[in-house]
Amino acid sequence: MDSVARTIANDVYEQLRHDIISCRMPPGSKINIQALVQKYEVSLGAVREALSKLSAEGLVDARAQRGYTVSDVSPEDLAELTDARVRIEQECLKLAIEKGGLEWETDIVAALHRLSHTPYTMPDDPAVLDQRWVKAHREFHRALVSACGNRWLLRIRGQLYDQSERYRQLSVPLARAERDVAQEHRNIADAVIARDVARACAAIASHMWTTTQIVTTGLT
């Protein structure tokens, strides 16, 4: 594959990945390859290359004689995903707290400030996350562990975060009025900056499992 074809395939991959993670392509839905070829005005090979990469990431299922489907969601998958996320996130936090300096702390405060002042949902549709919030939320959680120093842990963490993003999108219509997500983020940041490992690990676990419980209710 030449450089131009590789760039086209990567562009298709990025767009499909975004649509899957944001649930614009619903979990479990069948993927019409020919429709994608026409939509993006690209070759069949470019679409197949993109789908192959997404399949390797666990976002797309490839089945013989049945083509491709968006990977489905389930309470069982969410429970295992959250368990893995909590374990990896806590390890990353421990290392970041140990190694992080003043610049790291400043990045966390700035990311939290940005997140706190970004609308959570779309003004015209409270059941849909505002993509500006999605970006700010990702950056806040990335800042928390940015001083971790272990590339492999951070890579795995990133993959798990992306998988969880679909469930986060599904949680929005199910949100509980009594839940204060902004306060949860402040609690996490306060514990991390205070270098309180036990409190930080407990706060991040509670934050993740609360979302899991809400989504599980909607999936069952």
Please tell me about this protein's structure.
This protein has 220 residues and is mainly alpha-helical. The protein folds into two domains: 3-70, Winged helix-like DNA-binding domain superfamily/Winged helix DNA-binding domain (Arc Repressor Mutant, subunit A, Orthogonal Bundle), CATH 1.10.10.10; 75-219, Four Helix Bundle (Hemerythrin (Met), subunit A), CATH 1.20.120. Helix content is 69%, strand content 8%. It is built from nine helices and five strands, in the order H-E-H-H-E-E-H-H-E-E-H-H-H-H. The chain has helices at residues 3-21, 33-40, 44-56, 75-99, 102-116, 131-145, 151-171, 181-193, 197-219, and strands at residues 30-31, 60-63, 67-70, 121-122, 125-129. Strands 1-3-2 form a three-stranded antiparallel β-sheet. It has a two-stranded antiparallel sheet with strand order 4-5.
Question: Can you give me a brief rundown of this structure?
Answer:
With 220 residues, the protein is mostly helical. It has helices at residues 3-21, 33-40, 44-56, 75-99, 102-116, 131-145, 151-171, 181-193, 197-219; strands at 30-31, 60-63, 67-70, 121-122, 125-129. The chain folds into two domains: 3-70, Winged helix-like DNA-binding domain superfamily/Winged helix DNA-binding domain (Arc Repressor Mutant, subunit A), CATH 1.10.10.10; 75-219, Four Helix Bundle (Hemerythrin (Met), subunit A), CATH 1.20.120.
- CATH class wording of the largest domain: Mainly Alpha
What series of H and E elements makes up the topology? Answer: HEHHEEHHEEHHHH
Oligomer: single chain
Q: Report the structural category.
A: mainly alpha
CATH level 4 superfamily of the largest domain: GntR ligand-binding domain-like
- pLDDT averaged over residues: 91
Q: Beta-strand level of the residues, as a percent range?
A: 5-15%
Shape: globular
CATH fold-type name of the largest domain: Four Helix Bundle (Hemerythrin (Met), subunit A)
Uncertain regions: pLDDT < 50 for 5+ in a row?
none
Distance between the termini: 45 Å
The overall number of domains is 2
Strand order of the largest sheet: 1-3-2
Main beta sheet strand tally, sense and closure: 3 strands, antiparallel
The helix fraction, in percent, is 55-70%
Can you tell me the CATH architecture of the largest domain? Up-down Bundle
